[in-house]
Structures are given as C-alpha cells and as structure tokens.
Amino acid sequence: MKRIFVLAGLVSMLAATAMADTPKSYQVTGSVLEVKDDMIVVEKDKDKWEIARDKDTKVTGDLKPGSKVTIKYQMKAVSIEAK
Q: Per-residue pLDDT for 48 more than 60?
C-alpha cells in the first residue's frame, strides 16, 4: 500500500514539474482583418493584434477576413540583450 502512495506522489511531482516548464498561455478574441501564411491580424476593441503563425499552428474552421476567432498564444523572446 505504501508503494502505491509513493508512486502516486512521484507521478504528481513529475506532472507538476513538467507543467512548470511550460510558458503561460494567453488568448485573444476578435475579428480577422488579414491572413497570411506566417501571420494573422485580429482587431479587438479597436486594437490591432499581429500574431505570428507557422505550419504547426492548428486552425479549425474557415479562416478568412471578417471571421470571428479566438487565438491561443504564448509569448516568446526573439532576442535578449543584457548589459
């Protein structure tokens, strides 16, 4: 019985560690203004959001200007300059 509790504890610790390494996810909902192979522009409350996308970006539905979409994204640093 102790082995089961120890095993369950190890599994939960590993799951927590794996989730801690994942960057936080965000989302924005708005109307599509422009769609390109590498980018989508969405308008939310008069603000324009340009969000990069690539071949691994999962798209469901008909993605075209005028469509209402919800985009889930993560922030990624492009460059860092320390001084």
A: yes
